[in-house]
Design goal:
Chain B: It comes from Ohtaekwangia kribbensis. Chain B: This is NADH-quinone oxidoreductase subunit N. Chain B: Its EC number is 7.1.1.-. Chain B: It is found in: Cell membrane; Endomembrane system; Membrane. The complex is a heterodimer of chains A (648) and B (502). With 648 residues, chain A is mainly alpha-helical. Chain A has 24 helices and 2 strands. In chain A, helix 14 packs parallel to helix 17 (404-420). The radius of gyration of chain A is 35 Å and the shape is elongated. Chain B has 502 residues and is an all-alpha fold. Chain B has a domain at 298-496. Chain B has a two-stranded antiparallel ribbon with strand order 1-2. The chains are: A mainly alpha (648), B mainly alpha (502).
């Protein structure tokens, strides 16, 4: 593309390189710094990320609304087939680049306060840097194979960070669970890659996008890719790992398990949207909305503040996936974008609550579970700043007008409304579900905020709670500011702002009546929440345990596996070992025979030779009787024998 | 007549100047005795001896460098050529090593000045023997070696030493008598004692009789006695067992070198003069016998010195293989073998002496000392591996060379006996493995705890290290030494064209 060459300068390329590599540099530097100087990391790591984020802003402005930037090098060849690796930087990728580096920088900054004094500080920042690098790799990769590589690296860093507190058994179990469930999804991804390779012979996204026809294999391939998304973005049925992943440090939850990594699935769907056939999209829409509904219901009854946020994340991701399924990747990306800010803000806010309460607990020598919202209440007085930020971000999550979440959710609802068509079909259920989800979102957000901040103080009453240092408040404030409608457009009720219009080039649906309906719907939800759930808590074991999915998996997967293991163990012992024993007996018997042969025939021969040697030795030595006269006799005799031998 | 006499005297004088190493050694003998009489200090005597050998060694080396063509000295008594100079250099090197070995022993060694004087005498005899081209000279220098050796054997001044010395003397006398008889027969045939002269060859070529063969075999027997090769080997084990360790080391190298040198010269002449008797086969049988008797008898030995005595008999067999080939490169390889043999033999003897001083005499006593004496045992092992002829040691290269020349000789002549010699040589190498590695086997594999503190910086270790490095060097770049040896021309064959004999 000649335009690419002219538009993008060398400075741009250097910047891109810096943006991508600085997190990696941060990883290396943090990993190399000895334990004694771990405080150095708290300066270097945010600094690297700050530069990276600034570079990302420049790159975003350069790429946005322009021709995509493409650069590639030959990676390897198999036979005559060349596999290349490179960068494909289009609008979506540039947007993700910005979001990832920006939020990663804020989380780095926040972590310097949150993680201060942690024993694994260098490891923490190293993995954070590594995660950011891998995530940028996903965002920039121009081929599915390269993306898969980074996809796995992201999974690995997620695993490392969930299990950061290695001394906690729950953390280790959660990390393992996240890793295993992701592997199930990634197996699907890998199969999808193989299918694509088998049918097209290329992994390159640009080349793949040139396919105009719709082939039947695409349904299978795209659904396989979607399996990877199910794992990474915690969609039904692999959604159970994300709530458990909350065992990791809260900034990690904010960055990885809310804003960026879990959104990678949605990003992948948007990136390879052209591959998806209508049938596949229907499946995706169904799964997305099902996930959204299930998670929203579960979020309603959780007591752990981080779990509520985790389920809410799953629910929002479900909405995004449903939007993709409804043929509106632009709406999904818009929601991803807004969600990244307000959900990160909520997590970091929750992190502040946990952090300051922990510190207060240590001062007051009192211990209770600070994450359990039943223990909290009335914190608005002691943590006014956090309260404000939490409310702003919460409003965005709930989709209250004048906040960013309202607009992006509107986009999704509009897209689904447009997609359902005019006639009556199952797609109406999706639309209804989407409305129910947005209703539930308001209720659980309200419940969470109300329980934590309003009412009377419960167990926190006696604690000396103070606001955290500015290094922690700053990122939350920035994220809260980014949660208002201005992020999307000047007009607080029009989601078709600068962002949406660029992504949504074909413009097959537009803002309409849905916005007003949605606004009214949300207001209704708020009032319902205020009047019904203010004083009442719902308790439902089914929802608390997320429809017993874990138990179900245990029953249908783990139990049979266990039984299979017991059976194979028995089989192994009884038959395979039996066979081995039998062959061992046979071998021993044969060995005895061979041993006899060895002793009697082979050793006999060897011993015979040895004794022959000894005999020769004894014979030659026998002349050495020690008597000199016999020596002389033998010598002379030998000479005479020689003479006789030669002469006669 | 006057003129002739003065010419002869001039020749004798000029010959004397050509013999500077031998002159040094001769003066050295007197000097050591005189100094020994005046000064009772051990160190001075030892240093003086060392100095004498070193000077002689240096003169030989410089001669080796500058000598253009063979020189006949003392009217054909001696012949100085590169072959004899090379062997002389080896003899002097062995002398230096013996003195260094004796240094560690000098406090225990009584009559040190006589001891050194005798050693120098043996070396002088060896020098002369390798140069001899006249039977009288051969006999004189041989007796010079022999008589000094008889005395040296008894230098442990105990009953065993006296017995060994007497046995050696008796056996040596018989061997000398046999040789002398052969020499007198030769004189009767040819009327000359110079066995390299044209006259000798001419007269011999016309008179090939069985008696001639008898005479030849008798003379060869005398040389075999010095070489300790079968069938004139039986003296070796008893004598070695009786002698002090440095003397054993000395005996197993210097007389052997001298014997092989003169045997080579004489055998070449015989081969040339006598076409009717197959001297190649006779020497092959002797080599086979030496190898077999040496190696097989060594298998059952319990005493280290006796073991080494049989080993030296077997090694004499290997040296003979080089001569048996009757090829120029065979002799070159024989010299290479002799050089490596000196190095590896001394490594072994240095450590045998070292262990003997620590009280380990029989092989069974070496049990488990490998941990306490790690480096001595390692060096000893390398010495034994080299004697066996396994890589990566010079012994392997030397054996490889020797066997390859034998193979060439077999290809040329097609005599079956040479093939048999090759087979026996290879088989005996395998057999030798069993007894050479017995001492290291006892030292390393068997377990026994000993409470002896050792000093790793012992003189023996430095000495051993140098020799071990040399042995390894001979393996890794044999070209260094071979390049030097290849310059040696063994000219006695070339001097008499076949036409003269025919």
């Amino acid at each position: 593309m000649p335009e690419t060459q002219t538009h993008y300068t060398t400075f741009f390329e250097v910047c891109l390189l810096l943006v991508v590599l600085l997190p990696l540099v941060s990883f290396v530097v943090s990993g190399r710094i000895p334990q004694r100087y771990s405080w150095v990391v708290t300066f270097t790591a945010p600094l690297f990320l700050l530069i990276s984020a600034i570079g990302a802003i420049y790159i975003f402005t350069a790429v946005w609304h322009h021709q995509p930037y493409i650069a590639r090098v030959n990676w390897f060849t198999i036979g005559g087939t060349l596999v290349s690796a490179g960068v494909y930087l289009n609008d979506i990728a540039a947007l993700m680049l910005l979001v990832v580096t920006f939020i990663s920088f804020l989380v780095h900054l926040y972590s310097t306060g949150y993680m201060a004094g942690d024993a694994g500080l260098t490891r923490y920042f190293a993995m954070l840097g590594f995660f950011t690098f891998s995530m940028l790799g996903i965002v920039l990769a121009d081929s599915l194979l390269l993306m898969f590589v980074f996809w796995e690296l992201v999974g690995f860093s997620s695993y490392m960070l969930i299990g950061h507190w290695t001394e906690k058994d729950e953390a280790a179990a959660a990390a393992k669970k996240a890793f295993l469930l992701n592997r199930i999804g990634d197996a699907g991804f890998l199969v999808g890659l193989m299918l694509i390779w088998a049918y097209t012979g290329t992994f390159d996204i640009v080349q793949l996008s040139d396919i105009n026809e719709v082939f039947s294999w695409q349904t299978a391939a795209s659904l396989c890719l979607f399996a990877g998304v199910i794992g990474k973005s915690a969609q039904f049925p692999l959604l159970t790992w994300l709530p458990d992943a909350m065992e990791g440090p809260t900034p990690v939850s904010a960055l990885i398990h809310a804003a960026t990594m879990v959104a990678a699935g949605v990003f992948l769907l948007a990136r390879v949207y052209f591959l998806f056939t209508p049938a596949a999209l229907d499946v995706i829409a169904g799964i997305g909305i099902l996930t959204a509904l299930m998670a929203a219901l579960s979020a309603l009854v959780q007591f752990d503040i981080k779990k509520i946020l985790a389920y809410s994340t799953i629910s929002q991701l479900g909405l995004m996936v449903a939007a993709i399924g409804a043929g509106a990747p632009a709406a999904a990306i818009l929601h991803l974008f807004t969600h990244a800010f307000f959900k990160a803000g909520l997590f970091l806010g929750a992190g502040i609550i946990i952090h300051v309460l922990h510190q207060a607990q240590q001062q007051a020598h009192e211990h209770f579970n600070v994450q359990d919202i039943r223990n909290l209440g009335g914190l608005r007085k002691k943590l006014p700043f956090t309260f404000c930020a939490f409310v702003i971000c919460g409003c965005a999550l709930a989709g209250i007008p004048f906040f960013s979440g309202f607009l992006s959710k509107d986009a999704i609802l509009t897209a689904i409304t447009h997609w359902k068509g005019d006639g009556f079909s199952w797609k109406w259920i999706v639309l209804a579900s989407a409305f129910i989800v947005s209703f539930l979102t308001v209720i659980y957000t309200f419940r969470m905020i109300w329980t934590v901040f309003m009412g009377e103080e419960k167990r926190t009453a006696s604690l000396p709670v103070v606001e955290p240092p500015v290094i922690m408040r700053g990122p939350v404030a920035i994220l809260a500011v980014c949660s208002v409608w201005l992020l999307v457009d000047i007009n607080p009720v029009n989601f078709e702002g600068w962002l949406f219009n660029t992504l949504h080039a074909d413009g097959n649906f537009h803002i309409g009546i849905i916005s007003i309906v949605s606004a009214l719907w949300v207001i209704l939800a708020v009032s319902v929440a205020y009047f019904m759930f203010r004083s009442k808590t719902i308790h439902d074991d089914l929802l608390l345990n997320n429809f017993y999915l874990d138990k179900l998996y245990f029953k249908i997967v783990e139990n049979p596996s266990w039984r299979l293991a017991v059976f194979t163990d028995y089989f192994d012992r009884r038959w395979i070992d039996g066979f081995i024993h039998a062959s061992a007996y046979a071998q021993v018997t044969v060995s005895h025979l061979v041993g006899w042969f060895d002793r009697a025939i082979v050793d006999g021969t060897v011993n015979g030779i040895a004794s022959l040697s000894r005999g020769v030795g004894n014979f030659t030595r026998s002349f050495q009787g020690g008597k000199i006269q016999s020596y002389i006799l033998w010598a002379i005799l030998a000479i005479i024998i020689f003479l006789i031998w030669i002469l006669f | 007549m006057e003129n002739g006499l003065s010419l002869t005297l001039d020749h004798i004088f000029s010959s004397l100047f050509e013999l500077s190493p031998e002159v040094i050694l001769s003066i050295g003998i007197l000097l050591v005795i005189v100094v020994g009489l005046v000064k009772k200090d051990h160190a001075i005597t030892t240093l003086l001896t060392l100095l004498i050998f070193s000077f002689s060694f240096l003169f030989v080396l410089s001669d080796l460098d500058t000598l253009q063509q063979p020189l006949l000295l003392f009217q054909g008594m001696l012949r100085k050529d590169t072959f004899s100079l090379y062997l002389s250099a080896l003899v002097d090197a062995a002398g230096i090593l013996t003195v260094l070995m004796s240094w560690r022993n000098q406090r225990e060694q009584s009559h040190l000045q006589e001891y050194y004087a005798l050693i120098i005498t043996v070396a002088l005899g060896a020098h002369l023997l390798v140069m001899s081209t006249n039977f009288v000279m051969v006999f004189l220098s041989l007796e010079l070696i022999s008589i000094s050796s008889y005395v040296l054997t008894g230098f442990s001044f105990d009953k065993k030493g006296a017995e060994g010395s007497l046995k050696y003397f008796l056996f040596g006398s018989v061997a000398s008598a046999v040789m002398l008889y052969g020499i007198s027969l030769f004189y009767g045939f040819t009327g000359t004692l110079e066995f390299l002269s044209e006259e000798f060859l001419k007269n011999l070529a016309g008179n090939i009789t069985p008696l001639f063969f008898i005479a030849g075999l008798m003379v060869v027997s005398g040389f075999l006695y010095k070489l300790a090769a079968a069938p004139l080997h039986p003296w070796a084990p008893d004598v070695y067992e009786a002698s002090p360790m440095p003397v054993v080391a000395f005996f197993s190298t210097v007389p052997k070198l001298a014997g092989i040198g003169v045997l080579t010269r004489f055998a070449m002449t015989l081969k040339m003069a006598d076409q009717s008797y197959d001297w190649q086969s006779i020497l092959s049988v002797i080599a086979i016998l030496s190898l077999t008797i040496g190696n097989f008898s060594a298998l059952l030995q319990k005493n280290t010195k006796r073991l080494m005595a049989y080993s030296s008999i077997a090694q004499a067999g290997f040296l003979l293989i080089g001569v048996v080939a009757f090829l120029p490169q065979g002799i070159h390889f024989m010299l290479f073998y002799a050089t490596v043999y000196v190095a590896m033999n001394f490594v072994v003897f240095i450590y045998l002496q070292y262990f003997e001083k620590n009280g380990f005499v029989t092989i069974a006593e070496f049990e488990g000392i490998g941990k306490t004496f790690l480096w001595p045992c390692v060096f000893l092992l390398i010495g034994f591996v080299s004697l066996t002829g396994l890589p990566p040691t010079g012994g392997f290269t030397a054996k490889l060379f020797i066997f390859s020349s034998l193979w060439d000789a077999y290809q040329l002549s097609g005599k079956n006996i040479l093939l048999w010699l090759l087979i026996f040589g290879l088989l005996n190498t395998v057999v030798s493995l069993f007894y050479y590695l017995r001492i290291p086997y006892y030292a390393f594999i068997k377990n026994r705890s000993i409470n002896i503190t050792t000093n790793i910086l012992a003189f023996e270790n430095l000495f051993g290290l140098v020799l071990v490095l040399l042995i390894l060097l001979f393996f890794f770049s044999p070209g260094l030494l071979m390049g030097w040896i290849n310059k040696i021309t063994f000219v006695s064959v070339i001097r008499f064209p076949l036409s003269v004999i025919g």
